[in-house]
Hints:
Layout: E1 4-7, E2 10-17, E3 22-23, E4 27-28, E5 33-41, E6 46-49, H1 57-63, E7 72-74, H2 80-83, H3 86-92, E8 97-100, H4 102-112, E9 119-121, E10 127-129, E11 134-139, E12 149-153, E13 158-162, H5 179-194, H6 198-208, E14 215-218, H7 227-239, E15 243-250, H8 256-270, E16 274-279, H9 285-292, E17 295-301, E18 304-305, E19 308-309, H10 311-323, E20 329-336, H11 342-347, E21 356-357, E22 361-364, H12 369-388
Parallel strand pairs: 6-7, 7-8, 8-9, 13-14, 15-16, 15-17, 17-20, 20-21, 20-22
Antiparallel strand pairs: 1-2, 2-5, 3-4, 5-6, 10-11, 11-12, 12-13, 18-19
Helix pairs in contact: 5-7, 5-9, 6-7, 8-12
Amino acid sequence: MKARKIKDNIYWMGFVDWDSRLFDSLIPLPDGTSYNAFLIEGSEKTVLIDAVESSLFSEIEAQLHNVSKLDYVISLHAEQDHSGCIPQILSMYPNAKVLTTPKAKGILMDLLHIPEGSFVTVQDGETLSLGDKTLEFIFTPWVHWPETMVAYLKEDKILFSCDFFGSHIATSDLFVTDEGRVYEAAKRYYAEIMMPFRNVIKKNLEKIAGYDIDLIAPSHGQIYPRPSFIIDAHKDWCDGPLKNKVVIPYVTMHQSTKKMVDFFVSSLVEKGVSVEQFNLTNTDIGKLAIALVDAATIVIGTPTVLAGPHPNAAYAAFLANVLRPRTKFLSIIGSYGWGGKTVETLAGMIPNLKVEVIEPVLFKGSPSDDAFKALENLAGTIATKHKGLGLL
Length: 392
Ligand code: FEO
């Protein structure tokens, strides 16, 4: 795709990736993604913000074809999807410097072997004059690596935010037109890589609150012409009220755990508690991550396999532990054949979760009346806990 004009002397460059369905060999991409870079031509200096991954060099090389001079490649974030092409771009423009944070400089040297003499580092709040335009660099660590910053173009009131406020969407529309669609994609993106760092992100949101922003231009997804939409969404995801919701990631082998899950879900719904249920044999983990952003409770459903939880249930517990959702309560339900340490194993896998563990319900074999009674009680306990938080 050709470079696209955003405003006078400000252009989108990069690649819209309609085809990929997995990011970092981990994260599902149901709607593809984009890798955005931004060219700003000031009256004196020209800069490129971010640089897309190395396999996309031919795209950005063609887009830069008529750009005779580049003074700086600004690296807001050192991860290779935004930095991979920097060495090739420096070969195109031997006099260009890489402008970044001191922390990113070290990471870029390690990842891409860029020589130290090619760097200029900036401090938090430092500015760069491009002549008739001015960039201010604002350190916003942990969105989602420690070295990240954003850049504010003062005269045009554009915040270039790299991964911060990003979303994985492939579209031909440069600007957000369907906020509902982007909300879902951005929440998925937040859940998958930002959620563990939400306390720092809250501070970053406070830090940018003082800036007059007309456009937010992230390096994945579309440009936001209504920045308050995505800023407010992030505030809510970081710190908004939890939902009266139980997330149930589960797996079943011979339907006993499934029968327990079905009964339990029905019991919760009867008591006024919402449920999101995920069969772990066919779940999009991005959807599970979204559900974890604001659920008050997680209940893992698993049979016992080889004396422990089913590996899919162990994966869900591992994922929840690393994503560190704000969840308040957790329990486990399931069936076993003769014994095992399912509860102990799963409980040992979630040290990062600051949750109250509610007495699990594990029963031998196909669920009996006693099992259903215990599940009914568990649903009642959860409803009472949610009432206690004012959610129900
Ligand atoms: Fe889009 Fe953290 O890279």
